[in-house]
Amino acid sequence: MANIDTALTRSEQDRPHRRRSVIVGPDWRFSPPGSRWGAFTISFQQLRAVAKKSPTVAAILQLRIQQLQLFARMPRHKGDRGFEIVNKNRPGNPSAQDQRVAEEVREFFLNTGWRPDWQRPDFANWVAAIARDRYILDAASTELVYNRIGTLQEFWPVDGGTIEIQWSDRYIPTTRYGRQLDQPVAYVQTVDGQVETEYAPDELAYWVANPMTDVSQGGYGLSELESCIDIVAAEILAIQYNSNYFDHGSVPPGILAVIGNFSEETLQELNVMWETDVKGVVGQHKPVALAMDDGKSVQWIPMKQSNREMEMGDFLDKLRTGICSVFSVDPVEIGQRMASNTGGISNSDNTEAKIDLSRDRGLLPAVDWLERNINRSIMPHIAPGYEFRFVGINAEDEQQKVAYLNSQLQAGGITLREWRKAMGLAEVPPGAEDGAWLDAPLNPPALQVWMQERGMSGPADLTQMSEAQRGALAQGPTDPTPQEVAKAWRWQWSQGA
Q: Where in this protein does the record put region Disordered (predicted)?
């Protein structure tokens, strides 16, 4: 043991106190604020413009934002979506102190601060703003505001497109607040090329979902939208092409060929009749009556071919499928019914299976990313030793658990006491005098054996039990109704069990 301690001590003495690896290139370490926008071919403003024009990207963003907002509230019952605050050391057995702290911290998150403020977005709107920047820019930013004694007071969503990571050791603060900092400037907010705000490392939470070790990336992430920007641009151009076909089409639908020896006066009359009676949307499909002499005819020669030759529908399906694959969303989940058999992230014909797989591949990682960053950047400043958790992610699994326990209860595989324990409830209901009756099985044959072993010859012996106990045993195998299960969950939540 002494040799190990000596080796560790020597290793610590020989080891440098700072990293030696290059994290970012020299262009980032010696560049002034505002250089972020010229370093990449696609700016944040361009990414946002593309996201607004693409209907597929807009549908995906709306879907994920709405799904994440369902977790930005208090759960209404056990198994419901929401968030909770638990002690890291005893998450399943909270004390009275833990419950008090959890209640205060929950209110802090719901109001995004210790006190409500009508100018500050609530937790659900904060999640929406963070999620949108996460998928479009991969730059989710939150300002942490402290009071005079250094306690975190509130947090605000910040435009991630205006935040730059400051790597330079030679950086000289330009704002009065930045010059007063006793810490190095870690982030800079630049608006229209002008430095507006400078942040210390603990004053801004800058979250990246897809980090890269590329030194030319400057520590910035690569968003899903930027990863499939070519496919999204192709979709926008394809939709614009189809729209121009109807709005600005310059090629005539066809040519009316007049065969035979017609006089100029007859041709003029034909043109006037065609302009007044047939041309335009209103005149479509109107019959035309012409009196023709022998050897003379009129023939229609179409100029525009059907867009099916370009297989435009199949092309758009492939583009949408590619975009959805990058965002880990099945096209079915955003209401896209594919005209071709291009499939999605799942080859199953079961719509429910596709949605479940899309949720597991896309929604759950996003929920986990948000939870990890909250625990890393916010929780240590307001409640050290406690953890922020999203709950109710697998609500369907909770329903399957209840169905399985109910079947075991009916078959006599478990007792009411075991059922309540598995559901997370107190083994003995509130107000019950004796919990011995909870050990009786609800299966009739098993109930008879249980009564015989305890010297109960028949129903007369049930008079020794309370009215509620006799009723529970006399009813036989009953399946708890959803209302009863929900009532038990609400009681458990109110008791903090």
A: 1-20
